[in-house]
Amino acid sequence: MADTRGAGFSLDLHWVAGHEGATWNELTDARAKQAAQGYSSHSALLPGVLRAPSLKGKLPASKSAVLQQQRADLHKQWTTEWMSSPRYGKLRTFVPSLPYKGFLELTASRSKAASAAIFRFRTRHTPLNQHLHRIGSAETPLCPGCLDGDETVQHFIYECPEYDQARQALRRAAGRAFYSMAYLLSDKKGTRHFLQFLRATGRIQMDPRAQPRR
Ligand SMILES: [Zn+2]
């Protein structure tokens, strides 16, 4: 800017508070969102360097934009599923703010699989036999760990002797809050402890990439 001084050049600077509502910025956001969803302009409209046949359908996408988009989609999908779940009415009474504002904060630092696991437990749509049997995906509602009762969420977290060791660690980590399912399934710290428990039980497949090679 200093170089242009006195050269018949003038520059006005405007400070704008935030981008929200700025038309071109909104349009750019919308296009960026489309790109993150995998859309691309017709190749005839792209600049020459991007039209090479070798690039066809392979334009690189921003990893963070794609992740952000996935999370937003997931959030939307879950909120919809959650609101239409019969559990919503029941759970709302003991988890006061659902669908709650902390959702993104709670899931942002977690893998999709971990977030999904917590959500399933919260809605009781778990990959545990009681639910699987109810939807016709398991022959029996019985717990495969102890064969001594239906494999409900309650049984899995608090009762099944098969997971005593993992449960002791959870109790140590959570303290008195251990007895609150709402804490384990909704609180930021609680869900962290719960995920550790879940991994320790080995009952739920959490992250397919973490599978040992066969
Ligand atoms: Zn059991």
Structural class assignment: mainly alpha
Morphology: elongated
Q: Low-confidence runs (pLDDT<50, min 5 residues)?
A: 210-214
The tally of helices reads 10
Helix and strand run:
HHHHHHHHHH
For the biggest sheet, the summary is: none
List keywords for this structure.
214 residues; mainly alpha; 10 helices; 0% strand; disordered C terminus; binds zinc ion
Structure description:
- It is a single chain.
- By secondary structure, the protein is an all-alpha fold.
- The chain has a domain at 85-206.
- The protein has ten helices and no strands.
- The longest helix has 22 residues, at 63-84.
- The relative contact order is 0.07.
- Mean pLDDT is 79; it is low at 210-214.
- Zinc ion binds at residues 143, 145-146, 148, 155, 160, 162.
Topology:
Layout: H1 23-36, H2 63-84, H3 86-91, H4 103-108, H5 112-123, H6 129-134, H7 153-159, H8 164-174, H9 181-186, H10 188-201
Zinc ion is lined by residues 143, 145-146, 148, 155, 160, 162.
